[in-house]
Specification:
397 residues, seven-stranded mixed sheet, elongated, alpha+beta, binds dihydroflavine-adenine dinucleotide
Length: 397
């Protein structure tokens, strides 16, 4: 049976980075993945340009039931550390918006960087190795060792790192193995669900599907948070960064409030024009501030009635303010794991050391990356968690 100092399951962002650090520290490392390629999500990420971190990273950008959990790892391997690594490989990058850093050329550059780092550490990467089961034994010195079973091989180690990610994008190798291993070792799972995910239409909102492809800046609010960014109409519902962000904080059955004109007041606009151009039609005014197709749909659907703005009553004005600034949108649900960027919830961090990512009651077993109950905002935060948690783990072994 082949033995290694460390075995890591999952050659995604967290597994690759952890393997590289451990290998470079002189340990023998086996990295197993069920796919044909390493870093498949990295390749897909950021529209092919990988939003690999953010200029502004703090624990407030993460959701976790144990809200102090992320602090230690994020402070020991920061966004600036990863930016320096990217720069050391001569990879050109740019800030798109809100501190989000993307490769100038392609996500492949980040995968190449991680592969090169693994090569430096002589990591043994074995692909097409779906891990089927894990068993823990105790040797005659009372130390734990783990046996890892794949379809055709069996391996042993004293240090087993689970970096199997979440359930989003099943086509990219996602599997529930990490959660099953947690359960096997009596670690609770914080309920999981698809997140950073588009909302779907209820039947009565389906006419909006005709606007698919149209986007506009909005402010989206629920009982916890407000996000100001672009919103995109799709065939199935609402998407775009503002919607994906609020989906992290959304519960099934909850209404979100959408301000369709967050930087101006429709009341002030109309009041001013009522003085200067009272004969203007409402539709004309709205068309100056919103995508034309959206305005047309409002009138076609009889949600609004066209008239000269001088004729708008107080009740009409109040209605318009509500209509534009306080759209109460009730999603039917979300598009689910098929299109979600992340999985909310996961391995309960109360059972994990925040310094080393080791399971508190099982020496030698570690969980890193998205499989943990740590979910970042949209904007490079999930990769930063992968890098930081991987580093903390590698330094702890
Ligand atoms: P990850 O999911 O990357 O890796 C887990 C690995 O484990 C996979 O390779 C899988 O094949 C393997 N595995 C699972 N079960 C196994 C088994 N039984 N046996 C063997 N191997 C197994 N984040 C961000 O910060 N910036 C961005 O731009 C984006 N963009 C983005 C786009 C898209 C389309 C998605 C789906 C996601 C993003 N994300 C993102 C989120 C980000 O990709 C995600 O949070 C990290 O990849 C998580 O890294 P992990 O290494 O934890 O899991």
């Amino acid at each position: 049976m082949k033995q290694y100092d460390v075995i890591i399951i999952g050659a995604g962002a967290a597994g690759l980075f952890c393997a590289a650090q451990l290998g470079q520290n002189g340990l023998s490392v086996l990295l197993l993945d069920n796919g044909k390629k390493i870093g498949r999500k990295i390749l897909m990420s950021g529209g092919g340009y990988c939003n690999f971190t953010n200029l502004d990273v703090s624990p407030n950008h993460y959701l976790c039931q144990n809200r102090h959990f992320v602090k230690s790892a994020l402070s020991r391997y920061t966004n600036w550390d990863f930016i320096a690594l990217v720069a050391s490989y001569g990879i050109a990058y740019h800030e798109k918006e809100l501190g989000q850093l993307f490769c100038d050329e392609s996500s492949q550059q980040i995968v190449d960087l991680l592969q090169a780092e693994c090569e430096k550490g002589k990591v043994d990467i074995q692909l097409r190795q779906a891990v089927l089961s894990i068993e823990k034994f105790t040797n005659d010195k009372s130390a734990n060792f783990f046996q890892v079973q794949t379809a055709c091989d069996s391996f042993q180690t004293e240090n087993l790192v689970i970096a199997t990610g979440g359930l989003s994008m099943p086509g990219l190798g996602a599997s529930p193995l990490g959660y099953k291993i947690a359960e096997q070792f009596d670690i609770p799972i914080v309920p999981i669900r698809a997140s950073l995910v588009p909302f779907t239409w209820k039947e009565f909102d389906k006419p909006f599907a005709a606007l698919s492809g149209i986007s506009l800046p909005v402010s989206v609010t629920n009982r916890e948070k407000t996000f100001v960014n672009q919103m995109l109409f799709t065939h199935r519902g609402l998407s775009g960064p503002a919607i994906l962000q609020i989906s992290n904080y959304w519960d099934m059955g909850e209404t979100v409030e959408i301000d369709l004109l967050p930087s101006e007041s429709i009341y002030d606009i109309l009041q001013e024009l009522r003085q200067s151009s009272p004969k203007l039609q409402l539709k004309t005014v709205l068309s100056r501030h919103f995508p034309k197709k959206l305005v047309e749909l409002w009138f076609e659907q009889k949600q609004l009635e066209d008239k000269a703005i001088a004729q708008l009553s107080k009740a009409n004005m109040d209605f318009l303010v509500n209509f534009i600034h306080h759209w109460q949108f009730l999603p039917n649900g979300t598009e689910g794991y098929r299109t979600a960027e992340v999985t909310m919830g996961g391995v309960d961090t109360n059972y994990i050391s925040s310094k080393t990512m080791e399971v508190k009651n099982t020496q030698g077993l570690y969980f890193i990356g998205e499989v943990l109950d740590v979910t970042g905002w949209l904007g490079g935060y999930n990769f930063q968690w992968a890098w930081s948690s991987a580093y903390a783990c590698a330094m702890g072994i």
